Amino acid sequence: MIAAVLFDLDGTLYDRDALARDLLEEQYHTFAAELTGISRERFVRDVHEMDEHGHGEKKSGYRRLVRSWQLDDTLAPRLIEHFFATLESLLVPSASVVDTLRELRARRLKLGVITNGQSPLQRRKLAALALERSFDTIVVSGEEGVQKPDAEIFRRALARLGVAATESMFVGDHPVADVEGAHGAGLVPVWMFVPYWPRPAVPNLAVIGSLPQILPILDGKEPAKKA
After folding, report:
1. Shortest CA distance to 178 belongs to which of 213, 137, 147, 209?
2. Which residues pair with 207 in a beta bridge?
3. What gap in Å lies between CA 170 and CA 8, rounded to an integer?
4. What is the distance between the alpha carbons of residues 98 and 130, in angstroms, rounded to a whole number?
């Protein structure tokens, strides 16, 4: 029996790729006059590659891009600031996510988040998504000094929930940090499928395309698909 369900944040509790597409379009429009000689298509492609679906380092990445575009170095910090400010402004609660969490709570399951990143930003994201009060524990790598896929960060979350790994499910999109990390820590992993990451090295893995699809898995039914 599953007693607790834990989640990754970025790419799991909201569509991070859709948000990034809107963000980069807005960023190009905002800075177009200063992006001399850089087409919209090149800007979006270059920043998207640097971003690595949220896993790229933005400060060094933007500096590197601005130099590669042969533009003034002073543009980089303003692009960085705009990126994070715009990201937060574009975060919108998802009705399907909110409803799924409400249903899990109605089933008396304990709920948690384990996310890699800096504490202020990750917590502001949860607040913008109106999810900060939805969980019994929120574990942020920037506060813990350890990050996924290290089993220690999973153990800390489980200890705070008072549950065993074998009675806990973890849902995330990254094949290594989330799926293989949770599996290695003894939790039941569920992969939020994305087409650009390779298949996680976990046998008999349940795969979902949207968060509500974890409900039939919890009911003991076959998942939507298997990887």
Report:
1. 147
2. 191, 225
3. 8
4. 9
Predicted pLDDT of residue 25: 97
pTM, two decimal places: 0.92
Mind giving me the DSSP string for 81-139? HHHHHHHHHH----HHHHHHHHHHHHTT-EEEEEE-S-HHHHHHHHHHTT-TTS-SEEE
Region of residue 37 (left: phi > 0; alpha: psi -120 to 50; beta: else): left
Question: β-strand 225-226 against 4-7: which pairing, if any?
Answer: unpaired
Q: Which CATH superfamily groups domain 4-14+93-226?
A: HAD superfamily/HAD-like (3.40.50.1000)
At 226 the pLDDT is 47
The backbone torsions φ and ψ at residue 129, rounded to the nearest 5 degrees and listed phi first, read -85, 0
Which residues, including other chains, have CB under 8 Å from residue 38's CB and lie 6 or more apart? 69, 71
∠ CA 198-203-207, nearest 5°, is: 60
Q: What percent of the chain has pLDDT over 90?
A: 94
Handedness of CA 44, 48, 54, 59 (dihedral sign): negative
CA distance 32 to 125: 27
Task: Name the nearest CA neighbour of 175 among 147, 194, 160, 156.
Answer: 194
pLDDT one-digit tens code per residue, 22-53? 999 999 999 999 999 999 999 999 999 999 99
